[in-house]
Amino acid sequence: MSHLGRSATETAASVASGEVTAVSVIEDHLAAIGETEALNAFTLVEEAAALERAADLDRRRRSGEELGPLAGVPIALKDLIDHAGRVTTCGSSFYRNTPRHSAPVVERLEAADAVIVGRTGLHEFAFGFSSENDWFGAVRNPWDTATSCGGSSGGSGAAVAARLAPIGIGTDTGGSVRVPAAVCGVMGLKVTHGRVPLRGVFPLAPSLDTVGPLATTAADLDLAYRVMAGDDAGDPWTAPRPVVPARPVDPGTLRIALPTEWLDGPFDAGTRAGFTTAIDRLAALGAEIGEVSEPLLRPPGMINEAAYGEVTVVHGDWFAEDPSRYGPSVRERMEIALRSDLATYTKALEWRAALRHAVERLMNRWHLIATPAVAAGPKRIGDDRIATESGDVGYRRAFSWFSAPVNHAGNPAVVLPLDADGAPPPSLQLIGPQWGEDLLIGTAGALEDVGLVVRRLPPGAPSR
Fold first, then answer.
1. How far apart are CA 454 and CA 425, in angstroms?
2. 343-348 long-range CB contacts below 8 Å, 24 or more apart?
3. What is the pLDDT of residues 95-154, one digit of tens each?
4. Are 183 and 148 in contact (CB under 8 A)?
5. Per the residue annotation, which of 152, 340, 400, 427 is the catalytic one?
6. Which residue in the list 7, 14, 78, 379 is annotated as catalytic?
7. What is the 3-state secondary structure (H, E, C) of the chain?
């Protein structure tokens, strides 16, 4: 029996009960990774270490020890999150760090008895949305290998979509979990800023950075989220807030806002049709749907200006020493970031504060805000523009339109593949109140149950 295509929840239960061995699970996934090298999803495959860890889990189970909630579950880890003894590259030409200690998120995953099978490719320094990397090559989309898997957590998205791991871990500063989830046809959770520790995670803009899971089921999102989330006294960004599991949600009781200014953006036809159908189905289930006007939600706002100051702090000295160490597209964006000034940054922070308060006011009236996940996509590798109903637009604009403002608001959001035409299918983004991940994941599960959200496979991916 192949273990590929099984959910993390199913896999952990089977390993913990002794129905299957962790070694057999990891062997199957490592073999699949080896057979799909053309996707370029991994920068490092942990073959020996993963099998050794799996064997230890089996030994512990046989000795009568109760295993953790992620027993034997393969995890694909973004290559900017520290894992002790492994080289962190951040997808760059020059950054190489071998940490003595793992990031807290990795410690928590391994304490739950997960098995990290490899480090996944990304857009250079997480500063982009395509994962077309000048130093490691483009990460390819399992639905069509001529297209981008999105970014910056592209390898994690591709690995989950291709069933190379049931859970991928990414980071999200402006959409870097949600964009790959959307264009790879899987689920992705962007957590409330401060919900998951950032210590040991290479920064892009720390006041916006988050760590979150990609998966194919709401139950798996919930499982990975609850393992990683929670206060870390050594991390200045995490908050001492309780972490609770997903709660049951009746879709008919939801009040869902549609922000008119935000939705007045570029769409391709499939995205528009999928989103419209999803909203109509939510209304048919009894959800209250209402259009709301909030000009501050019209992108782009000052999403770049409010991040560039932090990008400059991280990269300014390196860039001044040798800008050629950065790939051309990232170098161009770095040059813009390094020209930012304090007056503009201060004004951008004022914009961010106003945006956060505006979203909070909306959340006082509505349970959720709904938008598409991305405006269009996937795009072809090598193309900088993407087709929409209103003409070709830059792909970064199409991919970040619905994602980046959420990071500046600080709210959690979940991306869900819809029961709609498309390969991959279009995705829905639901934005919740701060610290409301339990509502978002519960809603995702409810929409799975009624068939509005689907678990679809790209061509050639194993179903079991």
1. 9
2. 344/305, 345/305, 345/306, 345/308, 345/309, 347/302, 347/305, 348/302, 348/305, 348/306
3. 999 999 999 999 999 999 999 999 999 999 999 999 999 999 999 999 999 999 999 999
4. yes
5. 152
6. 78
7. CCCCCCCHHHHHHHHHHCCCCHHHHHHHHHHHHHHCHHHCCEEEECHHHHHHHHHHHHHHHHCCCCCCCCCCCEEEEECCECCCCCCECCCCCCCCECCCCCCHHHHHHHHCCCEEEEEECCCHHHCCCCCEECCCEECEECCEEEEECCCCCHHHHHHHHCCCCCEEEEECCCCCCHHHHHHHCCEEEECCCCCCCCCCECCCCCCCCCEEEEECCHHHHHHHHHHHCCCCCCCCCCCCCCCCCCCCCCHHHCEEEEEHHHHCCCCCHHHHHHHHHHHHHHHHCCCEEEEECCHHHCCCCCCCHHHHHHHHHHHHHHHHHCHHHCCHHHHHHHHHHHCCCHHHHHHHHHHHHHHHHHHHHHHCCCCEEEEECCCCCCCECCCCEEEECCEEEEHHHHHHCCCHHHHHHCCCEEEEEECCCCCCCCEEEEECCCCCHHHHHHHHHHHHHCCCECCCCCCCCCCC
> Cα–Cα distance between 438 and 285 in angstroms, integer?
20
Provide the token pair at 8. 């993390």
Catalytic residue among 7, 92, 156, 176: 176
Q: What pLDDT score was predicted for residue 462?
A: 65
First to last CA, the chain: 8
> What does the pLDDT read at residue 377?
86
For the beta carbon of residue 318, count every other beta carbon within 10 angstroms: 16
- Which amino acid belongs to residue 189? L
Rounded to the nearest 10°, the torsion over CA 44, 46, 47, 50 is -160
The CA angle 359-363-365, to the nearest 5 degrees, is: 125
Average pLDDT on 291-298 reads 96
Q: How confident is the model at residue 376 (pLDDT cuts 50, 70, 90)?
A: very high
The answer to whether 309 and 272 are in contact (CB under 8 A) is no
Distances (CA, A) of 368 to 272, 288, 345, 446: 19, 10, 30, 14
Lowest mean pLDDT among 1-10, 52-61, 134-143, 392-401: 1-10
Cβ–Cβ under 8 Å, residues 348 and 237: no
- CB-based burial label for 224 (10 Å; 0-12, 13-18, 19+): buried
How far is the C-alpha of 274 from the C-alpha of 269, rounded, in Å? 9
Higher per-residue confidence, 245 vs 216 = 216
Catalytic: 176? yes
